[in-house]
Amino acid sequence: MPVRSASRKAIQLTIACEDRPGTLSKLAKLLGEKGVDITAMSCAPVGVQGYIHLVVDNEKRAKKALAREHISFTEQEVLEVDLPNLPGCLGAFAEKFAQQNINITTAYGSASKGSRKTRIIFKVSDLQKAAKIRW
Known about the structure:
The protein has helices spanning 23-33, 59-68, 89-99, 127-131, and strands spanning 6-18, 38-46, 49-56, 74-84, 104-110, 117-124. The protein is of the alpha+beta class and 135 residues long.
């Protein structure tokens, strides 16, 4: 039986930081100690600066923990999409965005080998329209 896609809006927290050893460890430990589960993440350096994008299970607790440590962050609405973990599914789903003239500005995701589904995070130009697209 095929896995059906599930889409939901989420908040992505973006932290600008120095690109150096220990940065992700410090951030992940801080959130873990506060009982916050990181459900999706991406890290990308731009020169000596880095950006960590996080989707968490408890935004309120995460924001409170970051603020308490004086860690600046921004929030963006994103779309979490669960797709079948099969060759071509991401391309076919992204094509649905293109057909609706929705630009994907950021995307990241992963699936374990052998798992039936993969979770992709999309930051898009029109979240309302994108949230209506189904597999």
